[in-house]
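Entry 14. Structure prediction run on the chain below.
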Amino acid sequence: MNGLMVMHFFSGLALYLFGMEKLRFALKSLLDGPAKTRLGALLDHPMHGLGFGVVTGAMLLSTKSGLEVFLNLTSLNLLTFSQTLPLLSGLAIGTTLLTQIMAFLTTAHVGLPMIIGLLLIYTTSHSQVRLIGHLLLGLGLLFFGLFTMSQAPMVLQMVQTVLSNGWFGVPLIFFLTALFGSTNATMGLLLLLTFQDLLPLTMGITLTLTAYFGTAMRFLLDIRGKPRMALRLVIGHTLFIGMGILMTVWWIPQLAAFFALFTPIVSLQLALFHTLFNVCVAVVFLPMSGWIAQACIWIAPDEYSMENQSNQFNNRYWPKYLDDDLIITPSLALAMARREVHLISALLEEMLNLVPESLFQGDAQKIAKLRKMDDRVDEIHQAITQYLAKTNSGTLTSTVTDELLAIMTVTNELESIGDIIENNLAHLAEVCIQEQIRLSSEIELSINAYHQTVHLALRQVSAAFLSDNRTLAAQVMAMKDEISDLDAKCRLKQMHSLQNVGQGEENFAVYSLQMDIYENFKRIYYHTKRIAKVVAGV
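Output returned:
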């Protein structure tokens, strides 16, 4: 009988873990591709990143998978590191949805999602429908595993005896969570024990806090060999959770008494704590996200990062990816040239970010910085052009030739954007200083709206080119109507403003200046659209 119970427990544990892994696989596959890029675009909307993190966590049900999504977005330059911190907090909240499901859903109908999942997998060839089948099958296996483990009460009592002893329970949960790589996996076991009234809430809360540290340890092990940004994301996540644990650990008995007021069922109390803990961490520490971001960059500096490559424009430019040894393999050489082009994109984004400050604040230092940064753009453009000329010296296939021409076209378009920013927008900023022109807050709002739209187009087309994402390129081309409408509204609004305030010399100078700014923003977008056409193959 004991041997049968042990078999019940471990077979149930295997089914539970396999179901969770299948659930992760299905959800991540469903969100791959366009969903990632749409999420990156949404972050330029005024809404807070916390909400998007919650949605992502609720859909992925895995902090690890969410971190991978955000790392991919940052590597494509769709996200800045500071933007990921609200997302990480929201992600932690969203992933607790699975814990709530496990706490509230009974095992009476676990067979139904498995049956439906198997039918979808084996009766259809549609990839998305099959993934939904895998999702349902994984969910059913997860709950069937919990049900199977519950049929081994003697084994559960042994586990409870070990976990109730803090000297053994805390290290064991830490190890198991690091092994599973998921807080939700550990939470399933804890919920099962509390549901069977084998684990008090105080110990459940203690072990839940331990599980958070175990997950962080697994993240640290998984990011070996990955970009420095991955380490920063994990450090940021660990700092948020660590500060929350330090605030919570002293009040565990009081928290247990507090959650007991809501429901007498211990498993529901623990699930509620799991969610509210992450909500409170987000509310308390998100105002400090800017400082935490700086701390992460200080802890994990990267002198070769794209950020530093774009900012250190005073030093001589050294190619990062252009390797002459790869010229004998044109396909590899062009792949490296594509990465080098992304350095220009990073610089142009920095330059475009400086434009409003240069115009509104009349900061001569920022204008000088713009000109120096464009010098760096010209240097990279020249280096890429010379590298492509060397690559073109041999016999190339038609595919490689098309790729070479595409890179050359994109490089030229980006260099033209740099010239517009330096020669035109920087010049207009100097005119504001020389003529002592001060733009009103209403004008600033209009220019900022236009600027943000153009900046989003540049960011998206850069990501589309680097990842060869035709869907994202099509989105940039589709912004043409939005740009035209915005341009017409801004011009009409300014004309009405001129009629209201009068056509004096000073007012007309402001009007002309604003029209020139709009025209240059529009030109930047059209260069951006040409790049999108290259990516889309139009």
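The radius of gyration is 28 Å.
Filed with the rest of this week's runs.
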